[in-house]
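User: Hey, my collaborator sent me this sequence without any context and asked if I could get a structure. I don't really work with proteins. Can you help?
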Amino acid sequence: MQGSLARRFSMLALVWANAASLQMTVVAAPNADTAELSNLVSGLYTRYAWVAMFSTTPPPNAVPLALANRAELQATFVPDLANAIWDDAQCAGKRGEICTLDFDILFDSQDPSASELTVHADAQGSEALVCFKVAGGTRKCLTFVGADIHGTAKVADIIYPGQRSLRQLLGFKRRSNPKSHNATTGG
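Assistant: No problem. I've predicted the 3D structure and written it out in structure-token form, which is a compact way to encode the shape of the chain:
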């Protein structure tokens, strides 16, 4: 039991060190209710910072978010998107090759690197803008579109610069208004 507790503590310390080295800044909207999506997104980058850190050994049994267990995906994404990400990971595992997602979904890169990461929430709390510098100093920003699912903020889509969104890459049609997500239809 003590070894397990020590292992958890060292893993938390590693995650904290990774997040600190990314120099993460969270700028939430003024209303606490609208900050839920930005807090969710900030938590993702805190837990998965190791992906973009070349000098860091990943935590034991760590995988990128797109390969996370079903519970983690369901806690993060709206149901249809969580299922599509899970199905893509299962497909890749069965085939032994890439099915659809061939990049890290949090960093929009096959070989992620990041520094000076910031998370900004919009005033309504329906979107969070994540910006960071990649290798070479170029600034990249991703837009996380949120949805309220039974009173809990979830990620409904990630829009990548100059590309389609995560939903589109996984075969969903682009919504005319991505901010309005209907929890009963899942789309």
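In plain terms: The two ends are 44 Å apart (CA to CA). You can pass these tokens on to your collaborator as they are.
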